[in-house]
TrEMBL record:
Protein source organism: Afipia carboxydohydrogena
Sequence ranges assigned to domain Acyl-CoA dehydrogenase/oxidase N-terminal in this UniProt record: 78-174
EC number: 1.3.8.7, 1.3.8.8
NCBIfam families, per the entry: PRK09463.1, PRK13026.1
Cofactor entry: FAD
Residue ranges of every copy of the Acyl-CoA dehydrogenase/oxidase C-terminal domain listed in the record: 302-449
Keyword tags: FAD, Flavoprotein, Oxidoreductase
Name the record gives this protein: Acyl-coenzyme A dehydrogenase
Residue ranges of domain Acyl-CoA dehydrogenase C-terminal bacterial-type in the record: 456-730
Record Pfam families: ACDH_C (PF09317), Acyl-CoA_dh_1 (PF00441), Acyl-CoA_dh_N (PF02771)
The family this protein is said to belong to: Belongs to the acyl-CoA dehydrogenase family.
PANTHER family on file: ACYL-COENZYME A DEHYDROGENASE, MEDIUM-CHAIN SPECIFIC ACYL-COA DEHYDROGENASE, MITOCHONDRIAL-RELATED
Length: 754
């Protein structure tokens, strides 16, 4: 290698420093980083996103077959489910619903047609989960788990052809019910610390001696576990006798375990937050499987963690975000209608500013989450597996659902806290912590994953530098490091001047497409992208590997990156839907709220960056006037709330894809929608009475202010509203066996029924 002044004089000492500053990367960390790929998140990390690239992405669309499935089997499934009975009477989906799910291949939506599945796109998967979630959390979870992280997806990506031919047809047809065993009592989010083992050995299987694995495990929180016939199992493989000719510790491995094998024990059911989807523990003691039960065969032993991370890179971007976006839209539709029909002090509560604020937050969040869901599905439809974006989606969709469900509960007041068949909010409220906990706890995802993985994967140069530092060939590593490091330096200086210019001019001259009324928002995101890229680089430079331990700092950077993605998605939605002016209030609320969040996080980063001179410099560059963004104005809040207080095309767009019961349905949501439309239709009558300063409709009729037909319309609406605001009550002996001894007839009837 010939002498190079830059490489040998300037870069070599930096290379040596970087070796010390960056901690060694474990195999599990490296495999997690290598899982999936990058997409729009990489553009945001450049500090100069190419908006034409984003806008050129075709929106996700359904095929005719997928649309027919939504209009047919999905509608029929929703109509079959009574959420109150599922959760409080049956504690499960009834047998006919299970049979319908299997017969219509709901469990095989993602399995290719060549194996008997439906072969649906990620967007179709998302749309199905969105609609079912608006009817029943239990039904939605039952359908989504086999189509997310589980044996089916792992077999499709990593299984041998023989394994695919053997197992996928049964999974597609519902003859096999899958589950996936990852979480154990000793290891939750830290899957690498699991103690479940598989020892390579010879054993007898189906009458023949074969090479295989003897497994011992204990798993819990396993969805569909209590009814599963095929268990996907993650464990640590060991080869103490060196039968495979390599190391003793082989690493995390994934295998298929038919649950009828000797030694497998399926436990009783867990009851997660009073949700009754099938969930429970299982155990295995000295369970022997042949090598061809390892997904991908013997060659895939030790690659389980990489396989799981790859599957999660896509899965976390579909099911839970779809369920959360559905929940937010559900809250927007129901809370808006209830706020319009429920009166206090002779005024609909939706007209109070104190109610408008949470209503606007619900409507804006519903708009944003569905925008992000659609954009993410568009990437997945293109074959992308955006790991960082999937983490953002899982984290922020479920967290924001928690906020809007709380808001909707507050708006409904007592209506939402009295349990019974007429309560359409309570079960959604109880289910929220489940989504926040599963598929990577949100606390961990926010503090360690989003920015930690994003900084490495999405940054244009950092991963190249890390790989160069880890190269065992020091000369080759130095050469690669020299090549990427100076590009990184140039990139950092470019962002320094970009961030400075854009911040000091308020983003006035930042690049943006011609987007009509929202062009300025693109300029603001260009401004904050440059500021983010600069601050992230400076934090990485000054903290090095210590940044991994600065979890709150990492979380704030992650929040900024997340907002950049979510706000990009909202702008893309407005463009894709034809720049609907009526939707501008929701978009304006989203943008103002997101910009406020980013300003706050920048201020928090700069206040807590350990290197104070660098923090002062960054503050001078990116926040010369401090953090003074106030968020949505009262006017925007009012306009956004109005979107859900009257029937309108914008309300329908905001809540598209939800299940709406038929005209003959008398369930609580149908009652609410009926009352809502009657009350709004009577507004002209109410207006006449107000103009005459008359509140009593009888007096208004006697004075000729309104007609007899108007009186009937008012009566009909009032009766409909009375049904809406009703709540349930129960006889003591219905709720508790304590009281049944005093009601022998009830006890006798129960014994006869059992």
């Amino acid at each position: 290698m010939s002498f190079s002044f830059r490489r040998d004089v300037l870069t070599r000492p930096i290379f040596a420093w970087a070796h010390k500053a960056l901690p060694a990367m474990s195999d599990t960390e490296r495999e997690a980083l290598e899982a999936g790929d990058v997409w729009w998140d990489a553009d945001l990390f450049t500090g100069n996103p190419d908006w034409s690239k984003l806008l050129a992405n075709a929106p996700a669309k359904l095929t005719d077959e997928e649309q027919a499935f939504l209009a047919g089997p999905v509608e029929e499934l929703c109509a079959m489910v009574d959420d109150w009975k599922v959760n409080w009477e049956w504690r499960d989906l009834p047998p006919e619903v299970w049979a319908f799910i299997k017969a219509n291949k709901f469990l095989g939506m993602i399995i290719p047609k060549e194996f008997g599945g439906l072969g649906f796109s990620p967007f179709a998967h998302s749309e199905v989960i969105r609609k079912i979630s608006s009817r029943s959390v239990t039904a939605a979870v039952t359908v989504m788990v086999p189509n997310s992280l589980g044996p089916g997806e792992l077999l499709m990506k990593f299984g041998t052809r023989a394994q695919q031919d053997k197992w996928l047809p049964g999974l597609a047809a519902g003859r096999e019910i899958p589950c996936f065993g990852l979480t154990s009592p000793e290891a939750g989010s830290d899957a690498a610390s699991m103690i479940d083992t598989g020892v390579v050995c010879k054993g007898t299987f189906e009458g023949q001696e074969v090479l295989g694995l003897r497994l011992n495990w204990h798993k819990r929180y396993i969805t569909l576990g209590p009814v599963a016939t095929l268990l996907g199992l993650a464990f640590k493989a060991r080869d103490p006798e060196r039968l495979l000719g390599g190391a003793e510790e082989l690493g995390i491995t994934v295998a298929l375990i038919p649950t009828h094998l000797p030694g497998v024990t399926i436990g009783h059911r867990h009851l997660p937050a009073m949700q009754v989807f099938q969930n429970g523990p299982n155990w295995g003691k000295d369970v022997f499987i042949p090598m061809d039960y390892v997904i991908g065969g013997q060659a895939r032993i030790g690659q389980g963690w990489k396989m799981l991370m790859s599957a999660l890179a896509a899965g976390r971007g579909i099911s839970l975000p779809s369920q959360s976006a559905s929940g937010a839209a559900y809250c927007a539709r129901s809370a808006g209608a209830y706020a319009r029909v429920r009166e206090q002090f002779k005024v609909p509560i939706g007209k109070f500013e104190g109610i408008e604020e949470p209503l606007a937050r619900i409507a804006g969040t519903a708009y944003q989450l569905d925008a992000a869901r659609r954009l993410t599905c568009a990437a997945l439809n293109q074959g992308k597996h955006p790991a960082v974006i999937s983490g953002i989606m899982k984290l922020h969709a479920t967290e924001r659902l928690r906020i809007v469900v709380d808001d909707a509960m507050d708006i409904h007041g007592g209506k939402a806290i009295i349990e019974g068949p007429q309560n359409y909010m309570g079960n959604l409220y109880r289910s929220v912590p489940v989504a926040i906990t599963v598929e990577g706890a949100n606390i961990l995802t926010r503090n360690l994953i989003v920015f930690g993985q994003g900084a490495t994967r999405a940054h244009p140069y950092l991963l190249q530098e890390i790989n160069a530092i880890g190269n065992p060939d020091k000369d080759a590593g130095l050469e690669a490091f020299d090549h990427s490091f100076w590009k990184h330096v140039g990139h950092a200086f470019a962002n320094l001047f970009r961030a400075w210019g854009r911040s000091w001019t308020g983003g006035l001259f930042a690049p943006a497409p011609d987007a009509g009324a929202v062009t300025g928002y693109y300029r603001q995101l260009s401004r904050y992208s440059a500021a983010f890229a600069l601050c992230a680089d400076m934090a990485l430079l000054t903290l090095g590997g210590a940044l991994k331990r600065k979890e709150t700092l990492s979380a704030r950077f992650g929040d900024i990156l997340s907002e950049l993605y979510l706000l990009s998605a909202a702008l893309k939605r407005w463009e894709d839907e034809g720049r609907q002016d009526a939707d501008l209030p929701a978009l304006r609320w989203v943008m103002a709220n997101g910009i406020r969040t980013m300003e706050q996080r920048f201020a928090e980063v700069l206040a807590n960056l350990p290197n104070r001179p660098v923090a002062w410099l960054l503050k001078f560059v990116v926040q010369p006037l401090g953090s003074n963004t106030l968020g949505p104005s009262d006017k925007v809040v009012h306009q956004c709330a109005q979107m859900v207080l009257s029937p309108s095309p914008e309300r329908d767009r905001l809540t598209a894809g939800l299940y709406h019961a038929g005209a003959n349905d008398d369930g609580p949501l149908s009652r609410l929608e009926r009352a809502f439309r009657l009350v709004v239709a009577n507004e002209p009558i109410e207006k006449k009475m107000r103009a005459a300063h008359i509140r009593d409709w009888g007096e208004a009729a006697s004075r000729g202010i309104i007609t007899a037909a108007d009186v009937e319309a008012i009566k009909t609406a009032q009766e409909a509203v009375a049904k809406v605001i009703e709540v349930d009550d129960f006889a003591p002996e219905v709720l508790s066996p304590i009281y049944r001894q005093n009601h022998p007839a009830t006890a006798t009837a129960e014994r006869a029924a059992s």
